[in-house]
Amino acid sequence: MRNLFFLLFPAMLIAQDSLNISLLGKTELWGISTTMMVRDHFAYVGLYSGEIVILDVSDPAAPVEIQRQMISDIPDQLTDGDSLLIATISDDWYENGTIEIYRFQENGTLSFAGEVEYQGHGAPQYTSLTWPWLMAQDWGSFKVWNITDLANPVLMDEPDMNGSPVVDGGLLYLWHTNYDTNPWTYSLQIREYEPPSNFPLISELPLGNVGLSGFDVEAGRAVVAQNDTILFIDVSNPNTPIITSRLYGNSGIRGVDLQGDLVSVVTRAQWLALFDVQSIDNPYLISHVEISDWGSGVQLVGDQMYVHSGVLSGFEIFDVSNPSSPVRVGYYFRYIPYGGGGVIDGKLVYAIQGNYSSSYSVGIVDISNPGAPHFSLPKVFAENISVDNGFIFGSVGNSLVVGALTPWGEINPGGAIQLGEVGQDLSQISVSDGIAYCACLEDGVLYVVDVSDPAIMSLLEEIHDIVGPALLASDDGIASVITNHDSLVTVDARNPENIHLASSIPIDVTSWGGVAMSGSLLAHSGSPNGLVFEDVSDPAHPISYPVFEGSENYRRIKLSEGRLFKSYRGLKCLDVTVPAAPVVYAYYNDPTLESGYIFIEGNRAICVGGDLSIFDISGTVDAGEPPVIPDQFELTVFPNPFNNETRITFDVPRAGNAKVEVFDVTGRIVETLVDSRLEAGTHSYKFGGDRLASGVYFVRGNVSGLMKTAKLVLLR
């Protein structure tokens, strides 16, 4: 009975424990999106996290997320099959997989209808559904199911053929791979379509040894993309398909859509191109428009063209009612961080994973409304982002570049300065107080650049022989470099006339961990866990403090005015005014929140990782004055009696294991508020009774053997 209760009330299993920090808003980010399709005015985006996000795009300028559908694993392909959505899903090793079938509901949401456990020569790669026949192809086999009974699909046949299937005009078109040749060779096969077992070959058109990157067929015309080449094929006579034209480029085609006389192509080089194929013998380019990043797929629905970007986690919408002049009318991105950044005039700027050859994209998010942050179109600018004095600095190859953020969310590029040899890319940058510190991992050099006037950046010094600079932080004219050889290198730049390597000492460090600096205090991850502080006020003789032990992840940390913030399953604040004895001063614990990069703006902390969370940290400004520790265990409830919601508060005199549970009059547990270790202090939790019947309930707290019970009265 208890398990059934938890099943019915899953939201009640997670309690947010907080002290001096409150959550202002949270927005889930997507991570990498793997596939996308559009049906009517709903968009379906598959995520690497094993979800399908459903959005209402009836207003292209303002797409609205309406549901997240959990599926069994990573969706590789989403196929629109009449009233059904077909999702092909690989297992972790891409050896087998599942084909899941969902019904489209009138409101755009999905309901599970059935599944096929796929056992073949690898995971299912391509599917096609023409009711009631479901076809799927993997790396070496082809299968056909009858799905009349969706709950019990029946495998009908495994014909000796392979290829990406498209059914059009009563014929089956296959992009066929010949695995017996070296290298593999490819062809377009045209077969009669008489499922489940009869697919006699009509003709086969050899297409060389360049693999498929896009394929579509409609009304006697086929379009095939092979990396940088588009083939236009006349298939009006299936016995003699003819390549009528070839168009060449160097942009890396990633998706093709053919509808009517319009062919749409997206590329890795960030282009959407439209072709007129009214005459398949003489196709021509109508127009092309730049897209935000590497295009992963394209689909035309009515007059709206949807361009999917898997790397940037989202899509753009173009109005192509006039194909000669496509107009971007909307977009929806939920890009994840790839590096540092900062806040400028209420806008969060951070590096994000960019296109196929680099990571030079920057995300800009208006966080003026914490509950509804606005994601702008990504900007191609730089990587290794750092913000100082209202300017954005970043690296492009071996150059340090600077830009200014406009009030409307654009980046105006400024100057650039080349550092070192071409090909020796900058791996880390940190900018503070008008000085930029730029590390090159490959040649072991730290470049010190005067950026006090971004219009005339100048190189001040080169510090050589820093072996393997992995992490970098700076403040007040001092730069600290943590190397992948477990050493701390300190550079003194307080006197521009005498910038020098002041010291190099061995330290206990996790090189992949976090690093932060404020004034002369440096913090970094210890090994295997814990936190290490270094006093670099005398750069020639840094002082290492004892490791602050812990079992938690200290990869994402930030120092600010005597406080250290750590992002992991929430946000924690340590008072570090005495680095030898840090004290946990404030926290917001929530296991649903992921760790992320931390940015401080006044009394707000913004954490960006798997989600974008904004916290009120005004309650931490008194760090340095330890919180009042209660002298005895107390438990109070207010208001009581209550309607829908009350707050349960308890004072903990000493740290220890705690369990706080709410029972009904039969002794049944209706909610577990806490089942973990708690620090000494006052703790407060919301308890919602919106799903409970009116009546009497009891809350019992047990902390390190100290126990209290209180009565709650819920009134409707």
Based on helices, strands and strand pairing, what is the structural class? mainly beta
Mean of pLDDT? 86
**Amino- and carboxy-terminal Cα gap:** 25 Å
User: In CATH terms, what is the architecture of the domain at 335-464?
Assistant: 7 Propeller
Task: Tell me the radius of gyration.
Answer: 30 Å
Q: Spatial order of the strands in the main sheet? A: 1-55-54-53-52
Biggest sheet, open or closed, and with what strands and sense?
A: 5 strands, antiparallel
DSSP, total strands: 65
Looking at how many chains there are and whether they match, the oligomeric state comes to: single chain
The amount of beta strand, in percent, is over 45%
Work out the helicity level. under 10%
Description:
This protein has 716 residues and is mainly β. Among the domains are: 2-10 and 628-714, Macroglobulin (MG2) domain (Immunoglobulin-like); 335-464, Methylamine Dehydrogenase, Chain H; 472-484 and 492-555, no CATH class. It contains one helix and 65 strands. The chain has a five-stranded antiparallel beta sheet with strand order 1-55-54-53-52, with no helix packed on it. Strands 31, 32, 33, 34 and 35 form a five-stranded antiparallel beta sheet that branches. A four-stranded antiparallel beta sheet has the order 2-58-57-56, with no helix packed on it. A hairpin with a 7-residue loop joins strand 13 (142-146) and strand 14. The longest helix has 7 residues, at 2-8. It is globular.
